[in-house]
Specification:
- By secondary structure, this protein is an all-alpha fold.
- 81% of the residues lie in helices and 0% in strands.
- Helix 1 packs antiparallel against helix 2, helix 2 runs antiparallel to helix 3 and helix 5 packs across helix 6.
- The termini are close together.
- It comes from Candidatus Rothia avicola.
- One of its GO terms (cellular component) is plasma membrane.
Length: 178
């Protein structure tokens, strides 16, 4: 996403106002996400919950500027908006199914957050949606394995999953699979 912001900013400096505005919108999206991610990380580690008052506004604070940037500069805005909407729906649906399969071990806040993260990851590319989720489960799984091997946790210990969702997404946004 940073590469896209830089590229659009350079086009904007060249006189294309749509690119400059899109760069500002994407920078807004990234800043909103990173600020919310830091807050959510701390809360989830401390309280094992992801509050709706932070997660739900992200759909508008992240989604609307993303859609706006797409409309301004995408060669096929309909295809791109469909791609990120599908990314959000797929990730939300997948996490909802995991919540059902785990009998509540995965929290409802994680499911709600997944939709926002799907918007962000799919904005880069559909492959990035897979890359981000691979990072999410790899980091969460390795952390859990370390806790079990060091006998600081058992298979029944509840571990906050939100920080791994945020870490995997952040890494995938900074080092995308294109």
């Amino acid at each position: 996403m940073l590469e896209q912001i830089y590229s659009l900013a350079a086009e904007g400096l060249g006189g294309r106002w749509q690119a400059a505005l899109a760069a500002l919108l994407l920078a807004w999206v990234l800043v909103c996400y990173l600020v919310a991610a830091a807050r959510l990380w701390v809360i989830d580690v401390r309280e094992h919950r992801l509050p709706d008052r932070i997660v739900l506004p992200l759909y508008a604070l992240v989604g609307l500027p993303l859609f706006g940037a797409i409309v301004l500069v995408a060669p096929d805005p309909f295809a791109q908006t469909r791609q990120i909407a599908y990314g959000a729906a797929v990730m939300f649906g997948f996490y909802a199914l995991m919540r059902l399969a785990s009998r509540g071990a995965l929290g409802l806040g994680d499911v709600k957050l997944a939709g926002v993260l799907g918007l962000l990851l799919a904005h880069v590319s559909p492959l990035n949606l897979l890359w981000g989720n691979l990072l999410i489960f790899l980091t969460g799984g390795l952390y859990s394995l370390v806790l079990i091997l060091t006998r600081r946790a058992t298979g029944h210990t509840h571990i906050a999953f939100g920080p791994f969702m945020l870490l995997g997404t952040t890494v995938a946004l900074l080092f995308p699979a294109t």
